[in-house]
Amino acid sequence: MKTDVNETALLEGLAHNDRSAIETIYAQQYSMVQTLIINNNGTAEDARDIFQEAMIVLYEKARSGSFELNCQLKTYVYSVCRRLWLKKLQQMQKYIPNANGLEETVSVDEDMDVHDQRNSDFLMMEKALSGIGEPCKSLLEAFYLQKRNMTEIAGNFGYTNADNAKNQKYKCLMRLKKLFFSEYKNHV
Questions:
Q1: Are 5-91 and 108-187 equal in CATH topology?
Q2: pLDDT of 30-42, one tens digit each?
């Protein structure tokens, strides 16, 4: 796979300390790295540190003059960050791979496809949730996101008892599923 012209220009800009190239790479890649780190026992601060280390690796490669990017820039950045994070987890003893596990990793392209599909699904769910209307949206958020129990929800939403709140939650969930899957079918 050949690198596209914009990515080549970004790498050249990075090699020459061009502020706009650095900011563009950061804007395009950071959220992906943050998601990777946070979803794998890390914090936002860990994500910043790992991304900075990856930028240093990328900078040094770009400056070498002999670096040839054979994949998308996001794939390369993701791969570097993933490897750096696995090493850090191993050092913190939160992740103990088998001796060969660090070398034999799943293809980054497969990971990126899964990551992109998950993000797409989340966006569709967010769209369905915003389209469901009130009080369903608030009721589902109270139960699934805020982890409130049915008795508490019944009191907050004015239902006579927890069973009525549970029935309403079920109806709302069915509406949400219908909206989500109608949106999902449109994207497949």
A1: no
A2: 999 999 888 888 8
Question: For residues 172 and 83, what is the distance between their CA atoms, to the nearest angstrom?
Answer: 42
Average pLDDT over residues 79-93: 85
When the candidates are 2.60.120, 1.10.150, 1.10.1740, 3.30.780, the CATH number that belongs to 5-91 is 1.10.1740
Q: What's the CA gap between 32 and 57, in Å, rounded?
A: 17
3-state SS, one letter per residue, for 1-21: CCCCHHHHHHHHHHHCCCHHH
- Tokens coding 127: 């769209």
pLDDT interval class at 115 (50, 70, 90)? low
Q: Which residues contact 32 (CB under 8 A, 6 or more apart)?
A: 74, 77, 78, 115
Mean pLDDT calculated for residue range 71-81:
86
Q: Alpha-carbon distance 125 to 129, whole Å?
A: 6
Peptide bond into 135 cis (omega under 30): yes
